[in-house]
Fold this sequence. Notes:
The structure holds two protein chains of two kinds.
Chain A: H1 2-7, H2 15-20, H3 25-55, E1 60-61, E2 65-66, H4 69-104, H5 113-132, H6 163-192, H7 205-236, E3 247-248, E4 251-252, H8 260-294, H9 301-315, H10 330-358, H11 367-384, H12 386-389, H13 392-398, H14 402-432, H15 438-464, H16 478-481, H17 484-514
Antiparallel strand pairs in A: 1-2, 3-4
Chain B: H1 2-21, H2 35-66, H3 83-112, E1 123-130, E2 133-138, H4 159-162, E3 176-178, E4 181-184, E5 189-195, E6 200-204, E7 209-213, E8 219-223, E9 229-235, E10 247-253, H5 255-269
Parallel strand pairs in B: 1-5, 4-10
Antiparallel strand pairs in B: 1-2, 2-3, 5-8, 6-7, 6-9, 9-10
Helix pairs in contact in B: 1-2, 2-3
Amino acid sequence: xxAMEGGHAHAPQGFIRKYIFSTDHxxxxxxxxxxxxxxxxxxxxxxxxxRIHLIWPQAVLPLVGAIKPxxxxxxxxxxxxxxxxxxxxxxPQGGFGNYFLPIQIGAPDMAFxxxxxxxxxxxxxxxxxxxxxxxxxxxxxxxxxxxxxPMSALQSAGPGEALGADLWITSIAIxxxxxxxxxxxxxxxxxxxxxxxxTMMRMPLTVWSWFITAILGLLAFGVLLSAGIxxxxxxxxxxxxxxxxxxxxxxxxxxxxxxxxxxQHLFWFFGHPEVYIAILPGMGVTSQIxxxxxRKPIFGYKAMVYAMxxxxxxxxxxxxxxxxxxxxxxxxxxxxxxxxxxxxVPSAIKTFNWLGxxxxxxxxxxxxxxYAIGFVSLFVSGGLSGPFLAQPVLDIxxxxxxxxxxxxxxxxxxxxxxGIFAATYYWFPKMFGRMMNETWGRIHFFLTLAxxxxxxxxxxxxxxxxxxxxxxxxxxxxxxxxxxxxxTFMTYAAFVTIAAQxxxxxxxxWSLFKGEKATDNPxxxxxxxxxxxxxxxxDNFGGVTPVVHNGPYxxxxxxxxKDYVMQTDPAGVAAH
Amino acid sequence: MGLALLLLIxxxxxxxTLCFFxxxxxxxxxxxxxxxxxxxxxxxxxxxxxxxxxxxxxxxGYIVWRYRETKSSRxxxxxxxxxxxxxxxxxxxxxxxxxxxxxxxxVWASQRYPLDQPDPSAVQVEVTGMxxxxxxxxxxxxxxxGKTKPSLMDPSAGNEAxxxxxxxxxxxxxxxxxxxxxxxxxxxxxxxxxxxxxxHSFFVPNLRFKQDAVPGLxxxxxxxxxxIGEYEIACAELCGLGHYKMHGKVHVVSQEExxxxxxxxxxxxx
Lengths: 576, 270
């Protein structure tokens, strides 16, 4: 840490060192945020094309032309990969985690600022590589974001499975490297750089969520990286880790002896914790916001911490629930199923505690609060379809149907995105020194909440009726053709919801330049980022090292002068 | 604002729940012995989760409206939580979730655990998936599948040639390979599931049956059709650009009709 002190006494002056190759965690956080914002619009555009193709397969679109069935599969692969990696992993952790973790624990920067910069630029390279897959011969791969071999391992399995698939897996490998560097930094920073008085049990729940997410990332991305390298070798060096003897279109290929299920085990050993990597920071920010805007301490702080730890712990033992229909031993399904149900318990605890936090509070409905409430609603809706899918016997009907698509979109897609929106509206004033427009924020919220439910709730009905996912057309199978009207409704709902997102972008950029000037603590919140200037100086606290005296959520303290007590307030909270 | 939130959350809850209850979009009628158990477990899970869903969303809507800040709001109750409550709801959810799971497990066990060997009188069928078709093989009167060879596979020729049946093998002579599946009603089916290229999934919603077909594995399953009828097969694992049209038909017919059909196929071969 000694070296860091010297490096951070003065802010860098040149434009490139200050804004491009910056080692300041705040600049890096903003870079991650805008990378994710770009990626989310790319991902959303791809989903728009998918929704259009499903209903009007013959449509010739401007710029894109007519979409062929294989291009539909390329769209869904790229939509999933970009959203999971470059949005849901990047924005909450790389973006807000980078910006606010050091400030919330009273540190001047991350523990390894240079690695932090490297981590962002590596992510950026990964994003460029995955976009390149669209422009090579054959286009982007068709194998879905889960990339199951043999399909993903065979160049001849379909268009897009040649160079496009190589770029896809290379991009993921690059992303894994970046995430490993990031995870290491987050963990070290949380353990070593906390200000005086900032005990672990005084850390805001956001810090806990980023910390636990980083531990999950450290354990999960390494496995995906190795799995990805093996896949690249199967594809290009003639190895057979994942491929047995196969005959594609009458051609006997040279592989033998590999196991397609090996990839599924390795992939889901990463893939399930990844779900929590996406959602845990959303849980953290929801807790933070619900407490702040209810003007009440969080209900059951310790229970919230233990629940997140339990979710992280169990998250590594349930990967097999993605594989009930895979040909894996039916006996192991029992263990995976029980452990999966166990995750429902800490998730339920969190929901109870969020409701308990609002109960008997004084709720202020600023936009961040609306999004936090929306998060709770979506978390409940997306979570309750989990116990269906956790039961192998129900997966006989539901696995690989739209029920699954509805489930994971509500919980790790939309709920996580609501966490990102909540965080954006909440921290925008601190990051950019201006307030976002409240009226447009509210309109954006109501349209998005109603719109996302209208898109994703019907997917559950479709799944129960047996509508298989990843079909580019529903007209071939008679019982599925009857479900097209509901699909049409979802496409219209998607049009409205996607249009509403432009309200957000316009509000964001307008507020960046024209928003009302923000004070240092506009929400009357208690954590450390609200004690410093807006936006914070280069070393976060302007040469002062904060000393922490209180827990993170001291609202409505009896006898206190105001209805909130800052974490740095030495007068403290008598009883605590 | 609190009222608007309450109305929207309640509206979403009511509409979502009603759409489940009208059952316009629901599981197709079941036609196998597993239907009863699976549908019962589904209904049980559905009712429990439905109650929790409605209760949680309704309370959320109510709480945000009831405790909105107004001029007459009472000061907040300063509290960091309640350990007794935490213990109670942790206990209750654990019992609920694990209990539900254990009930489902016995159904799964009866479906998939090979505890009892299939009925020796079961009809044997081998299902082979390939981009983008299903082939069904019956071992014929000798009750033995003949050899297949990867080098003989010719998908464009269809049926026997598509799965690479080695006609020099004596056991292969009476094997029947078709593109449509026929099954006798009320008789156990002993299914072997294979794939020659990528992963496919054999999904027959009416028969409450789904299992991936994985290259390199020969997966044995058994099930029991109970209703005569024509049921659709849909591939449920992404297998390439023709995934959406990789479908087929299962004809569940009477034993006499099945025998007649199989005999006709055998005759065609000679």
